Amino acid sequence: KMAADTSVEILQKVLENEILQTTKVVEEHLDAEIQKLDQMDEDELECLKQRRLEALKKAQQQKQEWLSKGHGEYREIPSERDFFQEVKESKNVVCHFYRDTTFRCQIMDKHLTVLAKKHVETKFLKLNAEKSPFLCERLRIKVIPTLALVKDGKTQDYVVGFTDLGNTDDFTTETLEWRLGCADIINYSGNLMDPPFQSQKKFGTSFTKLDKKTIRGKKYDSDSDDD
Q: What is the pTM of this model?
């Protein structure tokens, strides 16, 4: 019992020491930064301020450019011809191939509406699969709903049915956001190795970042009842 107590005490001391060391490093870093600022003359500070303003201005201009190209809202496009035009002018595009009679497409719509507002860097579109037979054939879309993820005009990846989203109709918007983050089609700030599935039990904790080949493969053998 005493030996166990001693090891706990030692461990505690080691941990406390680690925390102190980390705090010390952080404080030293902060001190160095403050000192650097203190030693700056007015010209250097003005230069720093200008650079910051320039960066903000650039970010704002970029956002305006995206908005002018139809980013920031989830839109339906009327035809296949529009699809080619839309993907040509934007670097990142998510296009939902849907069908009016498929209930799961409405679930997808709900999440994409939220994500379109949040991720202005990506264009979010929907296209009626029945009105776009050529595209569906060319992109080999066999399951509805399917999201085609287009980067620099090329279809890089697909989200087919809800297989990658926890295999459930009530997946969260965060889960879809994570999946799009895995494809690098949006700027994802979370941890890709930690999927936010509602029920981890179903997968076990080892289910992490998906292999793209597996995702593509699922397109042909998806168990969705909307084939």
A: 0.69
